[in-house]
Structure formats: structure tokens, C-alpha cells
């Protein structure tokens, strides 16, 4: 009687599962830092675009535009003033903290696009901190990693 070997032994199957498990663990360990970096990068990119939108809105409509930060609710709004409905409202990750050092939780662009008051905002996420510096004059700002 001849016996054909058509399958894998239990040891071979366990060995393959072990190798696949080890490779999966390395993949998961490497994905977490990439995800964390992507969260803050995406937020900063959107934040920059929203600041530019507020400035352009102020110039086009020839009226002051305010960006109001509400850190307790993890959101900020862009609007003409506090009475009317906001033009834009953004919610962000609850692990991101925004601290205005020279502002009272708002940034105001004048009708000509210049900023009403220069200052600094610190944005933190996990172990990364960024500084947003608003310059007087043309309403320019710069995002720097600390």
C-alpha cells in the first residue's frame, strides 16, 4: 500500500502561522507612529487652509473675519462676528491642544487682510509641539515645529 503525502503536517502549519504573526506584529508597531504623524500633519494642513480662507474672505468682503478657538469643545469657527452663523466650523482630534499665548482664543483679520494683533499659538499632539506665529502687517503666519 502506497501512502501519498498530500497535505502539510501540524508542525509546518504552526510554523507558518508563527511567522505570519511575527510579521503582523512588526507591521502594527510601525503603523502607530505613522498614524500619529498623519493626524497632526492633516490637522496643520487644514488649519493653514482655514486661516488663508478667513484672510481671503476678509479681503473679498471688505469686513473683519474672526477665527474663534473653543478648546474645551475641540473646535474652531471662522465667521464675521459672534452674532451671525459661522462661515466654517472645524472639529479636531481631542488629543490636539491649542493654546493661544498672546490672543484671547481668537484671531481677527481686518478688512484689508492684515491681522489685528500679532501673536503666537501653540499646537500640541502627543509628544509633538508646533508654534504658529502671526506677524503684524500683511497678515502672514508661519508654522514651526518645536
From TrEMBL:
Membrane topology annotation: Single-pass membrane protein
InterPro entries: ComGD (IPR016785), N_methyl_site (IPR012902), Pilin-like (IPR045584), T2SS_GspH (IPR022346)
Keywords: Cell inner membrane, Cell membrane, Competence, Membrane, Methylation, Transmembrane, Transmembrane helix
Span of domain General secretion pathway GspH: 46-131
Transmembrane region(s): 7-29
Subcellular localization, as worded in the UniProt entry: Cell inner membrane; Cell surface
SUPFAM superfamilies in UniProt: Pili subunits (SSF54523)
NCBIfam families xrefs: ComGD, IV_pilin_GFxxxE
Name of the protein: Competence type IV pilus minor pilin ComGD
Annotated organism of origin: Metabacillus halosaccharovorans
Gene: comGD
